[in-house]
Amino acid sequence: MSTKFDARSYRSVMGRFATGVCIATTEIDGQVHGATVNSFTSVSLDPPLVLISLDNQTRLLEQIRQTGRYSLSILTKDQVQLSNHFAGRPQEGLDVAFDWVDGHPLLSSAVGHIATELETEHLAGDHTLLIGRVTHLEAFDEEPLLFFSGRYATMAEQSQPAPIGVYSVIAMSQFLADDEVIL
Ligand SMILES: Cc1cc2nc3c(=O)[nH]c(=O)nc-3n(C[C@H](O)[C@H](O)[C@H](O)COP(=O)(O)O)c2cc1C
Predict the structure, then answer these.
(1) CB-based contacts of 126, cutoff 8 Å, min separation 6
(2) Whole-model pTM?
(3) Which CATH superfamily does the domain covering 7-156 fall into?
(4) Which of 52, 80, 117, 179 is the most exposed place for a label (fewest CB within 10 A)?
């Protein structure tokens, strides 16, 4: 099927979906391998599944296949250097510290930690979707690093929890009478 857009337009539109930034890691013989990813998505609550999408050329893809597991550290607004470091631009003198959970290397001082065992992988064009079953997770009271239109950003102010509230009200309203829905 022919497409009516070029790679630049594709990237330009997809980049307008604001995301956080994660470092995906896996450990082989005491050595931590990692890559910066923003393709992280929560997939399922029961069972708890997440996915990342890796370019078929990344070294990390083969490394995760080898270990059968990957972990994710959600970056804070102060970790731009770490993002660049793991995106193929090594930052000289950067201190990269890990907390270890069940043999999973997780970056210290993150917004969140997620450890997974690889459940399935799906080839999708020039990328591979790696679906992991969550075995450990932890949240920290930190501000996230954001990525939008090819640039890093931070939150101007703490956002209100409206979207989650709206979502749960929609879900709940299927089961509750109108006067039971609490906004
Ligand atoms: C903010 C940001 C997000 C990225 N997200 C992804 C991603 O989701 N998937 C991917 O394959 N590469 C992504 N990259 C590029 C990889 O981090 C980069 O190619 C890295 O060098 C791959 O490392 P490796 O080949 O050593 O495994 C991203 C880069 C940046 C800066």
Answers:
(1) 55, 56, 57
(2) 0.88
(3) Electron Transport, Fmn-binding Protein; Chain A (2.30.110.10)
(4) 179
